Amino acid sequence: MQVVVVGAGVVGLMAAHALSHRGHAVEVLTHEDPLATTSATAGASFKPRLVDDSPLLRPLLVASRDVLVGWTSSGFATTLGIRRHRHAVVTTNGPFEGDWLDLVDDVKRSVPGPGAGLSGVAAPGDTAAVAFTTWFFDVDEVLPALLGHLQGDHAVVPRHRVVSRLEEVVDLGEVVVNATGVAASRLVGDPDVVAVRGTVVRVRSAAVADWDPDRSMSRHGSYVYPRRDGVLVGGTADWGAHDRTPDGGLARRLVDAAVHLAPGLADVRDAELEPMVGLRPWRRGGVRVERGTDLAGTPVIHAYGHGGAGWTLAPGTAERVADLVATLP
Ligand SMILES: Cc1cc2nc3c(=O)[nH]c(=O)nc-3n(C[C@H](O)[C@H](O)[C@H](O)COP(=O)(O)OP(=O)(O)OC[C@H]3O[C@@H](n4cnc5c(N)ncnc54)[C@H](O)[C@@H]3O)c2cc1C
Question: Which end of the chain is more exposed for a tag (fewer CB within 10 A), N or C?
Fold first, then answer.
């Protein structure tokens, strides 16, 4: 089938990959370069956060985990820039809960303190900690690698195009996939989508160049992830905010707040801070992955509303999108 995917964030590109893998001809249309999307600002690890619960959430999580297990054992994960990784979370307001922890490995819970194996993360006043082995998505690598695979496969190179209404693109294919993230709110008039703005700071500095590339940490809303030439520091969650203008003052405050996680951050200069802003597509009622109303006789499949869990859920979402396309006559 000829499929038009609108959106080249992680959801659109993984859907395009799954579809082309199943033999479909795919065209990707995007307003932004993939490395300028919200997806490119993420941490990112397999760890659902800021996504509304729904009956679809658990099946998507399990499907994503299964895809990632397969990609890991075949070596394809490494080709894409996805690797196994140790993440530690410390909380100050009781135990860290997550009904998805059965989907990650080697979960160790502990009360922070000497001997808990969390040196550098926990501090006096912390009440609980959990560390686990999960997947890390090196977003700077994965988005271009997905594009590379699309170009080498059946798909067309992503085309820059601002789509005002999905009706505009129905003539380009036999089915349209809507993977437009937070823009779906306007594009399909979905009132349940809310932007949750996140600011993160990319720090390229020798002062943090020794950060372990296989480790990330989070405490008190601050987090530190590995990045080439340094680290990524986060983060904020501003509900209903759409302005993506980076704020240098906020960047410095985020970095200062994360010094307890990465002491080298105390020595970085303002010129080494690169704030980035993304809009998490949170949706009341949870992620939407379903066939919508046909437009001029063309089936439309929606794939948006992944909130703060798009990287976690994209592999499973992509399989579901491909399954939905397979049901079309
Ligand atoms: C700071 C931060 C940290 C995060 N950390 C994690 C994490 O650790 N783990 C995790 O799982 N998730 C994380 N997330 C969430 C994750 O990044 C998002 O859920 C994910 O990026 C959503 O992907 P998407 O493809 O739906 O949307 P986007 O990345 O926003 O992509 C949307 C695409 O649609 C295109 N588009 C939109 N409108 C139009 C239009 N009218 N015409 C043409 N094209 C259009 C855009 O140009 C873009 O290509 C984080 C997010 C943020 C902001």
Answer: C
